[in-house]
Amino acid sequence: MAYTSSSLHLHKHLLLPKTNPSSSYSRPPPPSFVAAAAKINGVNGHSSKKSPNGKAQINGDGKKGVNGSGRKKAAAQHINGNDRIHLSVSTGGAGGQDGFGLRVAFQGAPGAYSEFAAKTALPGCDTVPCRAFADALAAVDGGAVDRAILPVESTMEGTALRNYDLLLRHDLVVVQEINLFVHYCLLAMPGVRAAEVRRVISHPMALAHCGRALARLGVDREPVEDTAGAVEMLRSNRMLDTAAIASPRAADLYGLDVLAHGLQDESWNVTRFLLLSKPPSPVTLPMDADAKTSMVVAHRGGSMMVVLKVLSAFSSRNINLTKLEVINNNDGGGGGGAAASAGHPVMILDTSARGAPTLRAFPHVLYVDCEGASHDPRVLDAIKEIERFAVFVRVLGCYAADSNVYDLQ
Ligand SMILES: O=C(O)C(=O)C[C@]1(C(=O)O)C=C[C@@H](O)C=C1
């Protein structure tokens, strides 16, 4: 196989006992957007807070956003339960720490999970729907918006390699992480019964996450751009033999019936999103903050030895890793792996050199997230050590560590 990827999922929340969120799905969702942080036992002990955010919003294309129904009053919590960090974060430029005045691009129609993640990160922001993730990243890169939100991994699928591919091609920095609990519902036009459904449409990831339930239903599956886009399509074409997989919020937003809750094969289904900005990072963290640093390391191959050296660079300084993904493309010849870039080297924008940033091709790459800020001398030393044997290291961002998992209940 030309292109392989293996990951060590070191996310703390994956190591913790599973809650059973599906138990609460039998009741309909509350009418308002209330993102309640499900605190993860024993991780950081920080409590979550709620802050009012009742702003109705219309996105640039005239569509209503998450809070756009006019009757919705959003009560989203602060993203960081840790006051010390939260209070020290400044979003820079326009907008306060809750994101008021900031425009955040997301992929999908209003009501997509990505939009909820953006509103969880920055409750006061204005969300801007984009057709594709590439459009969302181009929008922030080009200055049309202030931030973009990107799903980068999920407990069910691992790393979203296509989205990493996109991220690495841009000169963007990670400014925040958000773990969102993703529970899927089967939505249909009002009055349609489950027995009448012949086809289910949704984002490919959602269809994959609900494979067993869909097999039980014996329906055709059709991928579309995003979950909320599926709902919108269903609604505008008044499809009576088709259902969509999307969030209960999307059902509420578009006025559809929820035929079934908690459709995902695994009850514990969390997607990790990154909030991206143009550099320099508008977020400043104090030296002693609980922070994370994300980086990409390109090397000459012989991966397992390199992996050991990378692990040693961190472990010898007592630095914990929260992610390590190994990407190898051995022949560069367009082979048939499962990843978006199967058979192709990873393209990374090199912003380190003087002059214009250049796109460079690397067949052997590691995606690494470590605990600690990029200005922490221990992290700096570890990176320096890695630079001695790696071909190239790019720090993708330094941000407040947030191991909470946010739920839309
Ligand atoms: O389609 C959406 O609603 C999205 O926000 C995208 C997306 C993804 O790409 O992973 C986000 C979270 C869910 O896992 C399903 C789909």
Automatic annotation (TrEMBL):
Alphabetical GO biological process terms: L-phenylalanine biosynthetic process
GO CC list: chloroplast
Sample GO molecular function, one term: prephenate dehydratase activity
Keyword Lyase: yes
Domain Prephenate dehydratase: 103-278
Compositionally biased residues, Polar residues: 44-56
Keyword Lyase found: yes
InterPro entries named in the record: Preph_deHydtase, Preph_deHydtase_CS
Stretches for region Disordered: 43-73
Tree of life domain: Eukaryota
Pfam families: PDT
Pathway: Amino-acid biosynthesis
Keywords, comma-separated and alphabetical: Amino-acid biosynthesis, Aromatic amino acid biosynthesis, Lyase, Phenylalanine biosynthesis
Protein name: Prephenate dehydratase domain-containing protein
Native organism: Oryza glumipatula
